[in-house]
Amino acid sequence: MSDQIRQLPVPPTMNQADPDAMSQKILVLGAGELGLPVLRSLAQRAKDIDGVNISVLLRASAVASNLPGKQRDVSEIRELGIEIIVGDLVKSSINELAAIFGQYDTVIGCAGYAAGIETPMKLAQAALQARIPRYFPWQFGVDFDLIGRGSPQDIFDAQLDVRELLRGQHQTEWVIISTGMFMSYLFEPEFGVVDLKANTVHALGSLDTAVTLTTPDDIGVLTAAVVFAQPRIRNEIVYLAGDTVTYGAVADKLEAALGLSFSRSEWSEEYLLGELARDPHNMMRKYRAAFAQGRGVAWDKRGTFNSRRALPVTDVASWINANLISGRSK
Questions:
Q1: How far apart are CA 110 and CA 250, in angstroms?
Q2: How far apart are CA 19 and CA 173, in angstroms?
Q3: Burial class (CB in 10 A: 0-12, 13-18, 19+), 310
Q4: Nearest-angstrom CA–CA distance, 139 and 120
Q5: Are 158 and 120 in contact (CB under 8 A)?
Q6: pLDDT at position 5, please?
Q7: CB < 8 Å & 24+ apart, contacts of 255-260
Q8: pTM surpassing 0.85?
Q9: What order of strands is seen across the sheet that includes strand 83-86?
Q10: What pLDDT does residue 326 have?
Q11: β-strands 243-246, 210-214: how paired?
């Protein structure tokens, strides 16, 4: 089947002319680290709203998997009353995906980058071809507009392509949710910023460089709040933040919580770009260099959606207390 763009009928479930009309037929793409929290929160909110139906698109292999973790996830999804739709974001054509998307008034992309650098554009093209009323692309991350093109992380350019496509049309409303880095990612040993074995913080850029961090659970709750907000949020970038901190402050918070001294070192932008040049396809080095530039990776928490609506979120100190102190005390 050709991927030439063809128009499908608009689903009749949401009146876009009515600012108070809410999403009713919602499809979430993926049920991983972010997808599951989004599904849980959507299902919780949907209990209080008449006529809302939620579905999730999963690969057939995930639904049929014998892995205990996959089985638990599938069971939880079904217990939440969410319908499972079988499909493949990578293998399916744009036309095939559009035929699925066209059955919904809202599609929320939660598949992440694991699906490949080309997939975000493919999904956006399918959403527009299906003429769905509302689309939330996978943009749960940094401020790609402010970072601009030519960043050390080439995935960011692909995300800017998606934004240009969505902004260049007027039939499908879009909502982009900017979350900063997943909070747990900052503490991943592979990322290298926080070395808990050596009690060291390696600052990306400088100790004064800031980063915005949000947990996937909070993103799930806040995404559901954005989906059902009234008047309806449309054609807008919504900023979230669990916390915005400098790398120096991260070291301070680790010391205060764990009662240990943490050494601090700075991985300059020049140093990290040099590291990337020696291994130009290393995804982790791309991220480190991009965050070291300090542009578009942090914003004031006071101006965020969650702060303006007084919605509780997990800050860095709370995350450390919940995830690191118990591990150290065992």
A1: 28
A2: 12
A3: exposed
A4: 9
A5: yes
A6: 37
A7: 256/317, 257/317, 257/320, 257/321, 257/324, 257/325, 258/320, 258/324, 258/325, 258/328, 260/199
A8: yes
A9: 83-86, 53-58, 25-29, 106-109, 134-136, 173-178, 236-239
A10: 63
A11: antiparallel
Q: What is the pLDDT of residue 13?
A: 62
Dihedrals φ, ψ of 154, to 5°? -70, -20
| Percent of the chain clearing pLDDT 70 (strictly above) | 95
Angle at alpha carbon of residue 63, lines to 62 and 66, rounded to 5°: 75
Which amino acid is located at 224 in the chain?
A
Give per-residue pLDDT as tens, 208-219.
Answer: 999 999 999 999
pLDDT, average across residues 240-248 = 98
Tokens standing for 46? 């949907």
Structure tokens at 141: 């991350």
Q: How high is the mean pLDDT of the chain?
A: 93
Q: Are 42 and 53 in contact (CB under 8 A)?
A: no
Q: What is the strand order of the sheet 263-267 is part of? A: 194-195, 200-204, 263-267
